[in-house]
Specification:
This protein is mainly alpha-helical. It contains 17 helices and 4 strands. The protein folds into 2 domains: 251 residues, no CATH class; 119 residues, abc type-2 transporter like fold, CATH 3.40.1710.10. Helix 8 runs antiparallel to helix 13, helix 11 packs antiparallel against helix 16 and helix 16 runs antiparallel to helix 17.
């Protein structure tokens, strides 16, 4: 009995390699090369890992030495670049609208008088927060620069009131905020975005390739030659058909980890073994759902690929990368928990960035394993149902 299963496994594996090499070489290219190319494209997009010198405009209605000093202070911030010095609000609106600048600082006419008179000068700042990341950076840079500028004149005022030099700085800023960033202290967007984007793109290639491979059997009628094997040993047959793709995508998963942790240099504070195991489980979990997807598409390759798009393409939005799952509606949070990428991303963050394997990694690992096991069993039963029915052979 065991030899029979092993013989089926070898036969189906050879059949699938022949399919990839001789029948659908484009699919082999898609599996082997395209996902790696997509990693390179995303790395090119995030070539500059830290956003610096966000362009802003300044309208200086005071035109004094003190207002000029403030402009110099703004331009000295690593977050800002004073790209335009304007005379009116109309031009500022146009530059904000076409994203030539991400914010506008308006220095009022009485700015220097209020600064020298210590009467609480105000400096309005209008910024585009629709572009959340760069808008936030511009706002942070302006706030920090104005605080530094105000601290200098507060110190001068305290000294003019007779406060000793050694005490004036402390009195000008009696509370010092000691801000310590525990993880990603340089606000590196490669660490933040690529941790979610690369697995999300990878999942699309994995699920799409599997659905195409299994659906092609039905579309072209090749399922007829598979029917006898899947009747006798359904799980062995499906595992054998999947085996070449598991090898290919495991290799690509290692390439993805190389890009993240070697090329980009993202920190690994936890276990490398756990990250490798989680990557393998993520691939297995992603592949196991393809037969369920194909069944939901009524055995049609075209419909199966459409369901794949609905399942895999929006996964990044639900993985809690840019929007935390704690703020999602219950239905969205439930869907997020169902997706393998959500649990894989948590493992990457916990084990790689935070070095906190104990905080949830074992449970996320268990989820990926159970997801794979359950979907593999259910999906195999569903796929066997499709393959052994001649009416499904050649279905578009």
């Amino acid at each position: 009995m065991g030899e029979g299963y092993f013989g089926i496994f070898k036969k189906v594996v050879r059949r699938e390699w022949d399919f990839l090499w001789n029948v659908r070489r484009k699919l082999l290219f898609f599996c082997l090369i395209s996902s790696a190319l997509s990693f390179g494209i995303m790395l090119a997009v995030f070539y500059s890992p830290v956003v610096r010198k966000a362009p802003i405009a300044v309208i200086d209605n005071d035109r004094s030495n003190i207002s000029r000093e403030l402009i110099i202070t703004l331009n000295a911030s690593p977050d800002l670049r004073v790209a335009f010095e304007l005379t009116g609000v109309k031009e500022a609106k146009r530059l904000l609208a076409d994203t030539s600048v991400y914010g506008v600082v308006i220095i009022p006419e009485d700015f220097s008088k209020k600064v020298l008179g210590y009467k609480g000068a105000e400096v309005p700042f209008y910024y585009n927060n629709q572009l959340l990341l760069v808008g936030g950076i511009a706002n942070r840079g302006v706030v920090s620069a104005v605080q530094d500028f105000a601290g200098k004149y507060n110190k001068i005022f305290e000294e003019s009131e007779g406060v000793p030099v050694y005490a004036s700085a402390a009195k000008a800023a009696p509370i010092i905020f000691d801000n310590k960033i525990l993880f990603n202290p340089y606000l590196n967007y490669q660490y933040f975005m690529l941790m979610g984007l690369l697995p999300a793109m990878f999942q699309i290639f994995v699920v799409g390739s599997f659905v195409y491979s299994f659906g092609f059997e039905l579309k072209t009628g090749r399922a007829e030659s598979l029917a006898e094997s899947i009747k006798k040993a359904p799980f062995t047959t499906v595992a054998a058909k999947s085996f070449p793709y598991w090898i290919i995508f495991t290799a690509n998963g290692v390439v993805m980890l190389y890009f993240l942790f070697v090329y980009v240099g993202a920190p690994i504070e936890g276990s490398r073994t756990a990250i490798l195991l989680a990557t393998f489980l993520f691939i297995m979990a992603s592949t196991s759902v393809c037969m369920v997807i194909l069944f939901l598409g009524f055995g049609s390759l075209r419909m199966g690929l459409s369901v794949t798009a609905v399942y895999a393409a929006p996964a990044f939005a639900y993985a809690g990368v840019t929007f935390p799952d704690i703020g999602m509606p219950e239905a969205a949070r439930l869907w997020s928990e169902f997706l393998p990428i959500t649990h894989y991303h948590r493992i990457l963050i916990n084990d790689a960035m935070r070095g906190a394997s104990h905080s949830g990694t074992p449970w996320d690992m268990l989820y990926l394993f159970l997801f794979f096991s359950l979907c593999f069993v259910i999906g195999t039963i569903m796929y066997r149902f499709l393959v052994i029915r001649p009416g499904m052979w050649g279905k578009e």
